[in-house]
Amino acid sequence: MAEAVPAPAPAVPCPDWSSLQADLLISIFATLDIPDLLSSGAVCRSWNAHSSFARRLGPCSASANKQGPWLLYSSASSPSHNTATGATLLRLSTGRAHHLTSLPPPPIRSSYIIGASHGWLVAADENSELHLLNPIRHAHIPLPPLLTLKPVRFLYKNKNRIEFVGHRWAPNYAPASTRYKLYNKAILSSDPSDPSCVVVLMHNPRWQLSFARFGDARWTWVNPYFYCVNYHDCIYDEGDGLFYVLGHSGDLSTFDFKGPDPIMKVLMEPFEINMHCTRYLAKSPWGDLLQVWRYHRVVGDDGESRTNRVKQEMVEIKDLRGHALFVGFNSSFFVSVNDFPTLSRNCVYLAHDKAKSDNLPDKSIL
């Protein structure tokens, strides 16, 4: 007598994850670590499209900021950097690393990084041309050409070698060296997807200012309007739409680039000249403007001072109210130590901002 064969169990329908609603997927993607966000795009076409949109929102969105800061660096010793197109993301709060490959040109390893904000890097290539790079989105946007910058008068070919000629402040430099002598720092007002985005460039001679609105074919030099020199740092305030620019003598000014001509207003006059001090500007979560003075030839702690914009005075402080402050080529920002206990309270973290050597082994940016 034949043994009865049990009937197969009914098949359990496999959920169709590709049909999840777009707003739900994007909300989930916005909470993921950067490596997980990048990996999610490989699931299906739908997830790829929505993860790309989440990347456009950026790891700089409110949800992503809960992850803490990420350090982007290029190192010759890293196995992922066998080619010039590689870089590494390191999450400072956990030590988790993610290797990026096949990034868009120009290669980060051979570029001179002069700014980082809203998830974008400002990079000078080996011809000293400036670009916006987003390593998470694999996006690239060229900025106005070098020759439209006022201090660069013209270029010429000498025995098949292109050289740039500046003002009398500098001799002739080969293209790859010009970027180290000319550019100091760059700041973005917003993500370049915003049509009102403005890029402010701090450059030599004497740390002057030029700016370009998104889509401009040329840089606009600020000096024909005002005598503006010796600036150390700049931040953008989304609340009032102004750039706050800090001078080497502690002076503070605002610039409005929204109209046809820039508008400048002096908030604080110069009060201390120190040639061996680099100054940074940051806006605290509680609304104060902070100047950070970094002394290069003095042994001791860096000082922080609060700027009172109403009374126009400086007040030295030692308490960052449970926060850590990050400065460098990146736009300065605060992180709550209560949320990320691996960071040190009331400390200033410096991402290398003097990477002006062709032989520098490692480059990092926050």
UniProtKB/TrEMBL annotation:
InterPro entries: F-box-like_dom_sf, F-box_dom, KIB1-4_b-propeller. Residues 23-50 form the F-box domain. Residues 92-356 form the KIB1-4 beta-propeller domain. SUPFAM superfamilies: F-box domain. This is F-box domain-containing protein. It comes from Urochloa decumbens.
